[in-house]
């Protein structure tokens, strides 16, 4: 049941969409008709979205999406929020619903083969077994803010770097490997790639960290979970919470995640309130002095600012393109 004045929905679905570009355009109109805000990625392989709005509008959205046979199995993660978690509504067509660079369906196809899905309570029971390895497949800024106790983390800036790290994981080929991420979407491809590379016993946390927090109390998840909306970070563990992240500037323990106020940097990092005030929401003195620095309001969340177009470079590129006909 949908509760509260506003909801934020997190979801994904790997399901073939024949005319993705047209679907994206139509879906944007539908979302706007419900006064939803959020960010949805559409690809021929499926949907990946976070949307937010009035509870009734979110219910209508879920009911309508579920009525489409392609998306009937979507597992919506629902959060009650005080205000919508986005400012605008974007629906964009891309090559993948999560950028991995793994586009050959003959090698990686989550609709055909992935790791065994573990429900949160199954994960809770299995995670501490001696022959189990818990693998975080998220980016540095995400697992620096919060991660499962004893999890293996990778030094990656984006998920597309994950395939290059497979060799570092070879020592775990004889273990039971459980992958996890925020909502489960990255694990679909990560676990599929591990199987393709010869890992035999591969599992994934179904619904990710968010579902685990809701259904299993978030036990042994240390810190907060980074989310891709204006909340930036959410609580997960109601059983044995502990803070693990520290301020990028002074080293003080803090769980506050922000984006650098310099839009040309926009680094994701943790910063305590004292340093946030002193640094005006910037990660460095150079960013603090940058002429395009945004006004820091204490949240560290900013609506994306378009980068200035280099017209000279744009004209040069246009002239260099081969003519047709």
TrEMBL record:
This protein's name: tRNA uridine(34) hydroxylase
Please verify whether the record's keywords include tRNA processing: yes
Sorted UniProt keywords: Oxidoreductase, tRNA processing
**Which family is this protein grouped under?**
Belongs to the TrhO family.
Domain Rhodanese as annotated: residue spans: 128-221
Q: What is its EC number?
A: 1.14.-.-
Which enzyme class, named as a word? oxidoreductase
Q: Which CDD domains match?
A: RHOD_YceA (cd01518)
Q: Which reaction(s) does the protein catalyse, per the Swiss-Prot or TrEMBL entry? A: uridine(34) in tRNA + AH2 + O2 = 5-hydroxyuridine(34) in tRNA + A + H2O
The record ties this protein, via InterPro entries, to:
Rhodanese-like_dom, Rhodanese-like_dom_sf, Rhodanese_C, TrhO, TRHO_N
* UniProt-listed Gene3D superfamilies: 3.30.70.100, Rhodanese-like domain
> What is the annotated role of this protein in its UniProt record?
Catalyzes oxygen-dependent 5-hydroxyuridine (ho5U) modification at position 34 in tRNAs.
| The keyword Coiled coil belongs to this UniProt entry's keyword annotation | no
Mind telling me which PROSITE patterns this protein's record contains? RHODANESE_3
Q: Which organism is it from?
A: Mucilaginibacter panaciglaebae
The record's NCBIfam families line, in alphabetical order, gives: PRK00142.1-3
* Residue spans crossing the bilayer: none
């Amino acid at each position: 049941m949908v509760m509260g004045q506003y909801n934020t929905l997190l979801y994904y679905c790997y399901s073939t969409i024949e005319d993705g570009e047209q679907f994206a355009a139509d879906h944007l109109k539908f979302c706007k008709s419900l006064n939803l805000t959020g960010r949805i990625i559409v690809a021929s392989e499926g949907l990946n979205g976070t949307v937010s709005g009035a509870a009734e509008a979110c219910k209508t959205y879920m009911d309508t999406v579920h009525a489409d046979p392609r998306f009937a199995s979507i597992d919506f993660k629902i959060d009650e929020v005080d205000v919508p978690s986005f400012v605008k509504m974007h629906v964009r067509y891309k090559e993948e619903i999560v950028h991995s660079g793994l586009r050959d369906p003959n090698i990686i196809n989550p609709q055909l083969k992935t790791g065994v899905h573990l429900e949160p309570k199954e994960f809770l029971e299995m995670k501490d077994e001696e022959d189990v390895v818990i693998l975080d497949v998220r980016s540095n800024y995400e697992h620096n803010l919060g991660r499962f106790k004893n999890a293996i983390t990778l030094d990656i800036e984006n998920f597309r770097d994950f395939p290059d790290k497979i060799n570092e994981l070879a020592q775990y080929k004889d273990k039971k490997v459980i992958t996890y991420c925020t909502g489960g979407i990255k694990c679909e491809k990560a676990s599929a790639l591990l199987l393709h590379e010869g890992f035999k016993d591969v599992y994934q946390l179904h619904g990710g960290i968010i579902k685990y927090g809701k259904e299993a109390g978030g036990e042994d998840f240390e810190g907060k979970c980074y989310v891709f909306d204006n909340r930036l970070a959410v609580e997960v563990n109601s059983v044995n919470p502990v803070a693990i992240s520290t301020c990028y500037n002074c080293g003080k323990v803090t769980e506050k995640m922000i984006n650098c106020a310099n839009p040309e940097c926009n680094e994701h990092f943790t910063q305590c309130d004292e340093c946030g005030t002193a640094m005006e929401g910037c990660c460095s003195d150079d960013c603090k002095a940058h002429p395009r620095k945004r006004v820091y309001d204490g949240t560290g969340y900013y609506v994306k600012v378009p980068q200035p177009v280099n017209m000279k470079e744009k004209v040069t590129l246009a002239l260099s393109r081969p003519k047709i006909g």
